[in-house]
What does this fold into?
Amino acid sequence: MENQQQLLIETQFEGLTLYVRPHETHEWLMETRLVAEGYGVSESTIRDHKRLHKDELTDGKHFIGVENTDTVGQGGSLKTFWTKRGVIRLGFFIKSARAKLFRDWAEDLIIRELEKNKQTDKVDLLEAKMHQYMSAMYEMLQKKIDKNHIELTSLIHNLSNRVDKLEKFMLFPHQLEEQKSYMYLFRKIGTNEYKIGKSNDPLDRIRAFENAGTDTKLILTIEFPNEAMALLWERTLQKTFKDLNLKGEWFLFSPQEVELLRGISVAFNDFYEIKKAT
It folds into this structure.
């Protein structure tokens, strides 16, 4: 763990800023304090689960002890860092809707934050192209809105062809399996707050939010043939609307932004239906 401070990766979960440490064996590590924040419980609760479930939470697999640099020369105490396996396992003992969301987030983290370092040039090129295209579409739409003349269909008629070309950049063998995934748009009922996210089961994600006390409505989904494309387009759309971001994956949208996303959803879904038939 030498010089790990320089290797911290900043990530977001439901408005929280969390930090993980890349690890050669365990992919990433997170200290107890941050695990507790993610699950919405106290550090003592995490320590209690570690003690009560010691037959299922094992040293070297679910957590590791690392010398506490804050106490070097003062007895050499160890600080507990949780592995990805450990964070996910804890989620089965902490029974709450938030726990399920955080557990799902932990499973996705390696894809979202760490694996992007592999084949970096190719991923950056793909994201840059998608972002450039979406930003241009958004700018065109805004100009037409100013003139009270929205022709959404004409703005996105060539989107399917562009997507087909972009997919040719997806050359990662481990990501080519046919595992359907979705980019979704949720609305917080009674507000103009919308969430752009990715899930293999958007309806299950909505149920988790409702169980956590947040009433949401599914506005639209875009189905992709694999998770990699869903993740990339989720990030692209979040970047496109960054000026409207509230926190995390939540955005303040007017009817115009929602209409744009509806049109994109129709274009994508039509395109993939045609692809399935050929």
